[in-house]
Amino acid sequence: MNDDKCKLTAYNRRDFYKISLITKGCSTLLYANRDIEISRPALVFTNPLIPYSWDAKEEDMVYDGHFCVFSEDFLHTGARMESLQDSTLFKADGNPVYLLDEEQLKYLKSIFERMQTEMDGDYVYKYELIRNYVNVIIHEAVKMQPAVAYFNPTNAASRITNLFLTLLEKQFPVDSPQDPLKLKKAGDYAERLSVHVNHLNAAIQEVTGKSTTTIINEAIIAEAKSLLLHTDWSVAEIAFSLGFEYASYFNNFFKKHTGYTPMKIRNNSLPV
How far is Cα 172 from Cα 224, in angstroms, rounded to an integer? Predict the structure, then answer.
């Protein structure tokens, strides 16, 4: 959380959601396959698996506000809630921006300031209190009318392709055998970007000359080689981390695309 002037940039951690309170400045939120103009105070919800960025209206304009970042596990501890990925606040085809009137801005600003005060304090249950504040912000947004005015970019194929490649890049490197890839097929990416899989495939083929599946497979093979050469994970652990249910499936996939078995790469350090 931060109550200083914020630079409006994407938060790169894959496991953190972000809620931003924009109190000053005009900008455009480039979110999934939409551009949303923000010209007054707003509450903005962004998902770590949905590519987004900010486009400032004026380079020398002052931007001010607050933000908080949190994991889904933190927010759901001790509570039965829907997945944040399924919430309209965070979905690619949902409404991530809520424009605020003066009263709403004052109230939400006070909540962010209270969270900052608790973070700086030593109250033993401060994280439980902060969790409650975050839930209050989410519920306040649900009660509001979202800012639904948005426009699609002019070069849709390039924009969708860039979104896909950004989302693909966010899947790597794989950090742990216990945290496997969440997006493994073209359909997974299409669903996350809220476009039909045929539309995604056509856009990527047009821009890159390759199929969506080919690009995904190339990324998985590159990550597999890195894990084989630079970790002590077993082949089974590597297979699971890359989304394969069984090591035999991974072995067949790897050999089909490289001509070698995974152990051949690991043991002989063949050129990669």
Answer: 11
